[in-house]
Specification:
heterodimer; A: 113 residues; mainly beta; 5-stranded antiparallel beta sheet; 0% helix; B: 110 residues; 7-stranded mixed beta sheet
């Protein structure tokens, strides 16, 4: 399987704390994306980082990418109960012309109020 | 804009029955995808399409067929359902880098 892996599989924190999720992947990539999935819903795109970028910010989200280690991390600062969801990383392979995504296995984040 | 819609939302099939899942998008996207999501497995690509009239196999295509007769619609067919096809199915579309997902179809095969 080409699937990436994420850790931890599950994370429980208190509101106001920071949450960090890690993603490892297997192939050379064009870009890496993070998606969020609320229970019983479809996925929503959060942020994209290109292979030549090392860090990117969007609001309370910070993503880092280390292509030498084939890994990425997603940091959510000052978490809120509404951040409770599953978070998935997904990669687009280098040379791919179809924007196919390969998803990781996901991290389930629970933010306790 | 409705975005990406999926029909039906839920379905229960008996082993050997057939059905078609419909995905529709109103964003004029060229690319469309079908995924299945199983516990602890993330999403896995079943089939995809890079434009009207084209389809291609993804990571887990066996037991499924697809058609893209119109740009806005992407159909996923199960000819003879098996219990291993019990899953949540998601459709997605895109034009550029990020994909837009439908709400999912929960399918149970008994």
């Amino acid at each position: 399987s080409q699937q990436g892996e994420e850790d931890p599989q599950a994370l429980s924190i208190q509101e106001g704390e920071n949450a960090t999720m890690n993603c490892s992947y297997k192939t050379s990539i064009n870009n890496l994306q993070w998606y969020r999935q609320n229970s019983g819903r479809g996925l929503v795109h959060l942020i994209l980082i290109r292979s030549n970028e090392r860090e990117k910010h969007s609001g309370r989200l910070r993503v880092t990418l280390d292509t030498s280690k084939k890994s990425s991390s997603l940091l959510i600062t000052a978490s809120r109960a509404a951040d409770t969801a599953s978070y998935f990383c997904a990669t687009v392979s280098r040379g791919g012309a179809t924007n196919k995504l390969i998803f990781g296995t996901g991290t389930l984040l629970a933010v306790q109020p | 804009n409705a975005g990406v819609t999926q029909t039906p939302k839920f379905r229960v099939l008996k082993t050997g029955q057939s059905m078609t899942l419909l995905c529709a998008q109103d964003m004029n996207h060229e690319y469309m995808y079908w995924y299945r999501q199983d516990p602890g497995m993330g999403l896995r690509l079943i089939h995809y399409s890079v434009g009207e009239g084209t389809t291609a196999k993804g990571e887990v295509p066996d037991g499924y067929n697809v058609s893209r007769l119109k740009k806005q619609n992407f159909l996923l067919g199960l000819e003879s359902a098996a219990p291993s096809q019990t899953s949540v199915y998601f459709c997605a579309s895109n034009l550029g880098r990020e994909q837009y997902f439908g709400p999912g179809t929960r399918l149970t095969v008994t």
